[in-house]
Write a structure and sequence with these properties.
Gfo/Idh/MocA_oxidrdct_glycsds, 24% strand, Dihydrodipicolinate Reductase, domain 2, 1,5-anhydro-D-fructose reductase, globular, single chain, Rossmann fold, 15 strands, 9-stranded mixed β-sheet, 342 residues, 2 domains
Length: 342
């Protein structure tokens, strides 16, 4: 494999156009092909985004690329990852990895057996705000963490609506779109794993049928820490945030659950308040750079396939809790009881 990674885009998606193509190019990669289920869409997308090859065939795309970025609808990830792994391609896949924990585990195992890198595109791990919070906790600056709160209620833009609000078989709903990110960010910042979750969901009118457009819940971690999450597609005027409160201080992150390298983190202790220094590196550029290094044998992606299994298991347990009105155990191993498709 050459030093320059040749990337194929599996899915002519908004995120690939707005964020990932530039991130690939800015980190030394080359976008060589795009695949869509519609040839006209693929051709128009390729022309608009300077991509030399457009196709409806996954095999044809795999012939062109060293690595693939998968941003199709959620129910397609499993088969596309398995096929890409069999072809020997490194894979950066959008969250959630799949619609069941079993499928996600199969994807991770297949990539390991094929000797290819699998990364989950949890961009928030790469935010300077969250990395600063993780470092402050690890350094003991707030003592023992006791509680965390994530505010990730936003308004889903019109151009991103559609299947996310209407199609359960594709993995629609706010839990698989937003709560899954909260779950990963909590694990990353706290360096702790969850054990159970209690959740309620809401359908406030933006979504259709059984699809939820809002969720609130509480996660218990192995350390005993309790974490709240509030996620929505329906709140146009809320701000996002991430807080961790410990025995000796608090970390208060504001405007930080976003794709942009913005937001601040305030450390508050008995001695006063301090704004932490924040690295403003583009989140997606850092994600692609880490993935590229891993593809060349240096380290791991920012979020691995195993991290993707964990975030899916947490989201699946949250949906299970909402359906049953009971506390749900979080299990990242094989578990058909954690099926999220409906």
């Amino acid at each position: 494999m050459s030093k320059t990674l040749r990337w194929g885009l599996i899915g002519a998606s908004t995120i690939a156009r707005e964020w990932m193509s530039d991130a690939i190019r800015s980190t030394g990669g080359e976008v060589v092909s795009v695949m869509s289920s519609d040839q006209d869409r693929a051709a128009a997308y390729a022309k608009a985004n300077g991509i030399p090859h457009a196709t409806t065939s996954l095999d044809a795309l795999l012939d062109e690329a060293d690595a693939v970025y998968i941003s199709t609808t959620n129910e397609l990830h499993h088969a596309q990852v398995l096929q890409s792994a069999r072809a020997g391609k490194h894979i950066l896949c959008e969250k959630p990895l799949a619609l069941t924990v079993d499928e996600a585990r199969e994807m991770v195992d297949a990539c390991r057996a094929a000797g290819v890198v699998l990364g989950t595109n949890h961009h928030l791990r790469n935010a300077g705000t969250h990395r600063a919070m993780r470092e402050a906790i690890a350094a003991g600056r707030i003592g023992r963490p006791l509680f965390a709160r994530v505010f990730h209620a936003v308004y889903l833009p019109a151009h991103l609506q559609g299947w996310r609000l209407t199609n359960p078989s594709a993995g629609a709903g706010v839990v698989l779109d937003i709560t899954v990110h909260d779950a990963d960010t909590l694990r990353f910042v706290l360096a702790d794993d969850p054990v159970e979750v209690t959740a309620l969901t809401q359908s406030a009118g933006l979504s259709q049928g059984s699809v939820e457009d809002g969720a609130m819940g509480t996660i218990r971690f192995k350390s005993g820490l309790l974490a709240q999450f509030h996620d929505a597609f329906t709140t146009a005027h809320a701000k996002t945030g991430f807080e961790v409160h410990g025995t000796e201080g608090s970390l208060i992150g504001t405007d930080c659950m976003t794709q942009r390298p913005v937001g601040d983190v305030l450390l508050r202790t008995a001695t006063g308040e301090e704004l932490l220094p924040i690295d403003r590196t583009n989140l997606y550029e850092r994600s692609v750079a880490r993935f590229t290094a891993a593809a060349h044998g240096d380290g791991e992606p920012a979020a691995t396939g195993e991290d993707g299994i964990w975030s899916l298991a947490i989201a699946a347990a949250a949906l299970q809790s909402a359906r049953t009105s009971q506390v749900a155990a979080i299990n990242p191993e094989f578990s058909t009881s954690l099926k999220v498709s409906q």
